[in-house]
Amino acid sequence: MPITDAFASHLFDSQTVLITGGTSGIGLACAKAFRDLGAVVTATGATAAEQVRATDDESNTDICFDVLDVRDASAIEALLTKFERVDVLVNAAGVIRRDMEHDPEVFADVIAINLTGTMRVCSAAKAKLQEAQGSVVNVASMLTFFGGPRVPAYSSSKGGIGQLTKSLAAAWASDGVRVNAVAPGWIATPLTQPLQDDPERSRPILARTPMGRWGTPEEVAGGAVFLASPAARFVTGAVLAIDGGYLTL
Q1: Residue 191 pLDDT exceeds 90
Q2: Nearest-CA neighbor of 127 among 165, 93, 179, 172?
Q3: Residue-wise pLDDT tens digits, 39-91
Q4: CA 92, 34, 162 angle in degrees (round to 5)?
Q5: Which among 57, 63, 139, 209 could bridge 244 via Cys, Cβ 3.0 to 4.6 Å?
Q6: Is residue 246 annotated as a catalytic residue, yes or no?
Q7: What would you report as the CA-atom Rg of the chain, rounded to the nearest whole angstrom?
Q8: pTM of the entire structure?
């Protein structure tokens, strides 16, 4: 059963949804889910090539794709001028540089995209979110809770996403803006493809996951839809693990 079948059709009719990092993986799954529930969706990618590839995919019909470097404050501001309001903001833009992040320059760039980029977009969208009494859904990670010896920058950025989510939730609650996060477990995306393809690395992941399988981007999108929906109207500052039980062990 498609994830969207679990929700009322037209749940987000006429609402404007902006998704950074929305040309592939979890971000694209979120874009499709909100589109299928009636929203007007804009999803961004870091490069023109990503934008073209996503636009040319027939399964992405009715999603508007744009280019955005979340390190560029002026580009973020320019993108936000296109919207009269923003009902839902999903921050899914992120990179991982396995084994290279011990280099301080690489570390700083990963932080600039994954953490500071999220804050830049949140800050730029704040006024429009407040006007719409909208919500933010950030994309955290299992590495919000654990260290990653090969990815110190990614782990630090995702730990920061957890605290940023809680901090903005507390700061913006009086303005009527909710801020939550999804924390995906081990999800089958291009980002995790090297792990999926390596039996020696995949085996312990699945052994620790009580449900015994990789999750899907659509399953994470379901959590994002819930957090943005009226069903979660008294939920803010939450970091929702969507991990097949990985955190329970």
Answers
A1: no
A2: 172
A3: 999 999 999 999 999 999 999 999 999 999 999 999 999 999 999 999 999 99
A4: 30
A5: 209
A6: no
A7: 17
A8: 0.97
Phi, psi of 224 (to 5 degrees): -65, -40
Q: Which of 135-149, 153-167, 185-199, 234-248 has the lowest mean pLDDT?
A: 185-199
- Residue 111: domain span: 3-187+217-241
Supply the mean pLDDT for the chain: 97
- Is residue 243 within 8 A of residue 142, CB to CB? The reply is yes
pLDDT of residue 246: 98
What's 63's domain CATH number? Answer: 3.40.50.720
Structural domain includes residue 49:
yes
Catalytic residue among 12, 65, 107, 154: 154
Check: CB of residue 244 under 8 Å from CB of residue 215. yes
Domain count, the chain: 1
| Number of neighbours of residue 248 by Cβ within 10 angstroms | 10
Q: Find how far residue 107's CA is from the centre of its chain.
A: 20
pLDDT at 165: 99
Q: Which two tokens stand for residue 100?
A: 């290279």
Under 8 Å between Cβ of 93 and 46? yes
**192 in any annotated domain:** no
pLDDT given for residue 35 in this prediction: 98
Question: Is residue 249 included in any domain, yes or no?
Answer: no
Question: Quick check: is 248 in a domain?
Answer: no
CA distance 244 to 200: 20
